[in-house]
Amino acid sequence: MVNRERVRWEQIQAIFHDIADLPADAREGELHIRCEGDDELLADVRELLLEDERDDFILDKGLGAVASSFVSDGQDERLNSMLGEQLGPYRIQRMLGEGGMGVVYLAERTDIGGFVAVKLLRDAWLSPARRRRFAFEQKTLAQLNHPAIARLYDADTLADGTPWFVMEYVEGLPLTQFWTARKGGVEDCLRLFRRICEAVLYAHMRAIIHRDLKPSNVLVTEDGSVKLLDFGIAKHLHDAGENIDVTVTGLRAMTPAYAAPEQLNGAPVGVFTDVYALGILLYELLTGKLPFDRSSMARYSIDLDAARPSSLAKADRFTLPVGKTQWADLNVLCLTAIRPEPSRRYPSVEALIRDIDAFLDNRPLDARADRWTYRAGKFVSRHRAGLLYAVTTFLLIAGLIGFFTLRLQHARNAALAQAERTERIQRFTANLFQGGDESAGPGGDLKVATLLQRGTQEVQSLSGDPQMQADMRETLGNIYRRLGDPRKADALLSAALEERRSAPATDQRKIIDGTISLGLARMEEARLGDAEMLTRQALDMARHLPASDSSARTATANAMLALGNVLEAKGDYGTEITVLEDALKLQPQSGPPSTELATNLAQLASAHFYSGHFPQAEALEQRALAMDRSLHGENHPRVAEDLNTLGAIQHELGNLHAAELYYRKALAITEGWYGAEHPNTAQDLTSLGRTLVLEKQYNDARSVLERALHIQLTIHNHDHPAVASALNELGNLAAQQDDYTVAEARYAEALQIWRSVYGNNHQFIGVGLSNLGSVYMGQKNFPRAEAMYREAVAVFVATVHEDHLNTAIARVKLGRALLRQKRYADAEKETLRAYETLTRLVAPSNGFLISARKDLEAIYTGLNRKADADRYRTAS
User: Can you tell me whether residue 281 is helix, strand or coil?
Assistant: First the structure.
C-alpha cells in the first residue's frame, strides 16, 4: 500500500510543478488535460495549488505535512489518537503541536513524576531521509547541554518501528508573543535577544548550526529564561555525507521568512546562516514586522534592502523612548546581520554578541564606520558626569587664577611634588607594558599574569614614597586574590599593611581596609585562626573611628561582612548570623539597591543555608539575586554566587533537576568571567558534580569532579578544604557505583584534610564520618557502620543542632545500621526521630525521607506491630 501511495504522491507533485507557474487562465485547462478525467487526482492537485497561493506558505509546514494531507496510510490518525498511551515510563497527556516531521505530545513520567515533551516521527515511509534527519536531531540534542537549549532525556521506537524521543518540556511563549505581552525598555529587549545568541553560539562551538531559527522555536518562560527548540534540520559543520535536507521534490525543509538567501538558493550554509536568522528575529522584536515579504517564490532569489528598523517601529514598542543615537546603532545591528551576502554580515554570533554588549555598555559598535565624531560622541555619552565635572573644575580654576597668583611660589612647589609623583606612576605603568626591553615592545601575547608579575617587581621602584608603594601593593594583592592566587596575595597584602602601620599619620580607614583584605586572603589559604584574628581587629578599629567620620558606618559593616565570611568557613554559623544581622542594620534600608546590601543578604542566606534554615535562606538569596541582576546584569560573578546558593538549597530539599539548572547557569557565568582554571570555577564544578551523582549521570559527574579536583590541586596545597570537597564528591560517586574501596579511600582522604584544617569541631567532620559509615554499610559491616554514624550524629548535634538536616540524615543511616542488626527497638528510636525532622524540612520526593519511611515499615514489621507497619506502607 505504501508503494502505491508513494507513486500517487509523486504523480501529484509532477503535475503541480508543471503547471504551478502557468497563468491562471491557462492553468485550469492544462490541469484537466493532465488529470485525464481522474476527478480525485484533479481535486488533489487543485487543493495543492490553492495551498500554494495562501499566505501561510506551504514550505513553512514542511513537505511531509502536505504529502500526508493527500495520501495518508492511517499513521497520522494513529499518532493523533495516542492520548493515554504509555511509552516506556511516559504516559501521553495531550498533543502540544505537529509539523511536517513529527508530532509532539505532553507526557507525564509515571515512575518518578514530572512532565516531558515526546516527539514522534510521522510519515516515515515518505523518505528514508526523514528517518535520518529525525535520528540526527536526537544525536544533536544529545550533544547540547546548555540551560537555554531544551534537553534530550530519552529515545526509543514504537512496536511498528516508529521512532520517538523525549525532551525537556518548556512552558513558555514564542519569542515575539512574549515580548509583545511583556515589553520593556530597548535594553531589556537586547538582553533577552542576547540570551538567544548565547545558546546559538554554544551550538556553533560544537559545530552545529540550527538553520531554522524563528519565534516559535524560541520559547520564553515566565521568568524571562529562553529555551531554544527544534534542531530538526540542524546540520553539523563537519558533515560530509549525503545531504539529509533535500526531499524527493528538491524543496528544502525551512521557514522561508527567516531563511538566509544561501538556504533559499541551495548555496553552502554556515554559522553566518544562523546569524542571518538572528538578525531577522531582532528586526521583528524591534519593529513587530518582518523585513521582507516572502509569500511568493518570485522574491526568493534576491532580497531588496530592508527598511531601517527605526522607520517602522512604533512609539509604544518599548516602555521607554529610544533615542536617535540608539536607533542608529540598532539599525546597524539588524541590517548588518541580514546582509544578503554572507561576507558582509557579522562573521559569527560571537561578533554579533560583541556589538550587542557594546550597545548595552554605550560603546562604539564594531559594525559602525570608525569615524572620530561617532566614537567621541560615545565617549561623551559614557562619561558625561565626569566631563561635566572636568569642565566645571577647569572654569573654576580659570576664574581663580588671579587669586592664586600671590601664592604662586607655594603652588609651584606643590605642583613640582605632584608632577614628580605623577611621573613615577607613569613610569610604573609604562614599565608594566614595556618589560624593560624598549626594542621589543609589549608583544601580542601579553597576559594579565605577566603584567602582575612585572607590577610586583616595579613596585619596588616606589620605595621613596611608602604610601604609594603600599597602595600599589594592596591593589596588586587584591587582584591576585580575585584571580585565585591567595599565596601571592598574602605576600603583597602583608607588606602593604606593614608599611601602613609603620608610616606616620596613615589614614586609619586604609589600615582597616588592608587588614580586611589580608584576613580574607588568609581565609582562602585555610589559615582560619589568623583570618578571624585579622577581621576582628578590623572590626574593632572600625568601631573606634570617630563619630564625626562619615565613613565609620560603612567601615564597620564591611568588617562585619568579612568576619561573617571567616565564621562561615570555620562552621560557626550561629555567631555568623548574629554578626551579619548586625551588619544589615548598618546598611541603607531605603533608596536604590547597593552592592553592599546585596552582599550582606547573600552572605546571610548562606549562613542560614548551612544552619539548615532553608526557607529563610531561599527568601534572602532571591532578594540578593534580584539586586545583583539589577546592579550588574545577568552575567556577573555575584549573580553566579547567588545561583549557586539557590542550587544548593534545591539540592538539599531533593529537587535535583532544579538544582542542576541553577548550578549550570552559575558555572557558565563563572567560567565565562574567570576562565576555566579558577577556584570559583572549580567550586561550581564540584557543586554540579554533587547533584549529577544523585541524578545517576555518572559519566558527566566523573568528568566535572575530576576537573574540579585538578583545578583545586593546581591552585592550593593538598590540605585545603576545597580539595577535600572535590575528593568527598568523588567518594560519593564511587559509593553510588558500589566501588567501596575507592569510596573509602576518597572519604578518608577528605576527612583527614578537614580534621587538619578544622580539628574535630566542624560539621564537615560529621559529613566525613557519615560517609565512611555508608561505605561500611555497603560492605555489610553493620557494627562498624553504627559506630561511625553515632559519632557523626554527635558531631552534628554539637556543631549545628539537633533538628538540622544533616543530623536527621545521619540518624536515618544509624537507624538502618541498627535495623540490619535486627535491633528493632533501637532502630525505631533513631529512624522515627529522623523521619519527623525530615517531614518538616524536605519535599516528599526527598530520597532520605522515602528511605526513612520504608525503614519504619520494616522496623514495625520486625516488632510485629502490623498497624504501625501498614501506616507507613500506605504513607508512601
Answer: helix
C-alpha span between 711 and 447 (Å, rounded): 19
Collapsing DSSP to helix, strand or coil, 571 comes out as coil
Tens digit of pLDDT for each residue in 341-352? 988 899 889 989
Q: Cell numbers 504509555 label which residue?
A: 86
Q: Which sign, positive or negative, has the C-alpha torsion 333, 337, 339, 344? A: positive
Reference 219, options 188, 177, 247, 165; nearest CA is 177
Structural class in CATH, domain 75-168: alpha beta
d(CA 201, CA 378): 28
**What does the CA dihedral 685, 691, 696, 697 come to, rounded to 10 degrees?**
-30
> DSSP letter at 150?
P
What's the DSSP call for residue 526? T
Three cell numbers written together for 595: 552592592
- What number is the average pLDDT over the span 257-279? 88
Residues of the chain with CATH 3.30.200.20: 75-168
Q: Please choose, from the candidates 289, 280, 324, the residue with its C-alpha nearest in 3D space to the C-alpha of residue 186.
A: 324
Pair 753, 720: CB distance under 8 Å: yes
Rounded CA-CA distance 711/703 in Å is 13
pTM, full prediction: 0.50
Annotated active-site residue 76? The verdict is no
297-311, 415-429, 505-519: least confidently modelled range? 415-429
- Residues 626-648 have a mean pLDDT of 92
Range(s) of the chain covered by CATH 1.10.510.10? 173-368
Non-local CB neighbours of 691 within 8 Å, separated by 6+ positions: 647, 651, 656, 659, 660, 663
Distance from C-alpha of 312 to C-alpha of 307, rounded to nearest angstrom: 8
pLDDT tens, 389-435?
554 554 555 555 554 444 545 545 544 444 454 445 444 444 444 44
Q: How far apart are CA 585 and CA 596, in angstroms?
A: 12
Alpha helices in 483-527 (DSSP H): 486-502, 508-524
Q: Can you tell me the distance from the alpha carbon of 733 to that of 689, in angstroms, rounded to the nearest whole number?
A: 9
Buried b / exposed e along 191-208 (16+ C-beta atoms within 10 A) = bbbbbbbbbbbbbbeeeb
Q: Residue 315 in 3-state DSSP?
A: helix
For CA atoms 687, 688, 692, 698, the dihedral sign is negative
Per-residue model confidence (pLDDT) at position 99: 64
Report which secondary-structure segment, H or E, holds 748: helix 740-758
For residues 296 and 256, the answer to whether their CB atoms sit within 8 Å is: no
Provide the 3-class DSSP secondary structure of residue 227: strand
Rounded Cα distance between 213 and 226, Å, is 13
Neighbour-count burial for 340-378, b at 16+ CB within 10 Å, e otherwise = bebeebbebbebbbbbbebbeeebbbebbeeeeebeeeb
Q: Does the domain made of 760-875 have the CATH classification 1.25.40.10?
A: yes
pLDDT (average), residues 99-125: 80
Which is the catalytic residue, given 60, 212, 513, 855? 212
Torsion from C-alpha of 354, 673, 653, 220, nearest 10 degrees:
0
Q: To 5 degrees, how large is the angle CA 757–CA 758–CA 760?
A: 130
Residue 561 to residue 512: CA distance in whole angstroms? 13
- Residues 6+ positions from 164 with CB-CB distance below 8 Å: 87, 118, 119, 120, 121, 155, 156, 157, 158
How far apart are alpha carbons 873 and 860 in whole angstroms? 10
CATH number of the 173-368 domain? 1.10.510.10
- The neighbour count for residue 181, using CB atoms within 10 Å, is 9
Segment 760-770 shows an average pLDDT of 92
What is the predicted pLDDT for the residue at 249? 33
- Burial of residue 548, with CB atoms counted within 10 A of its CB: 0-12 exposed, 13-18 middle, 19 or more buried: exposed
Residues of the chain with CATH 1.25.40.10: 760-875
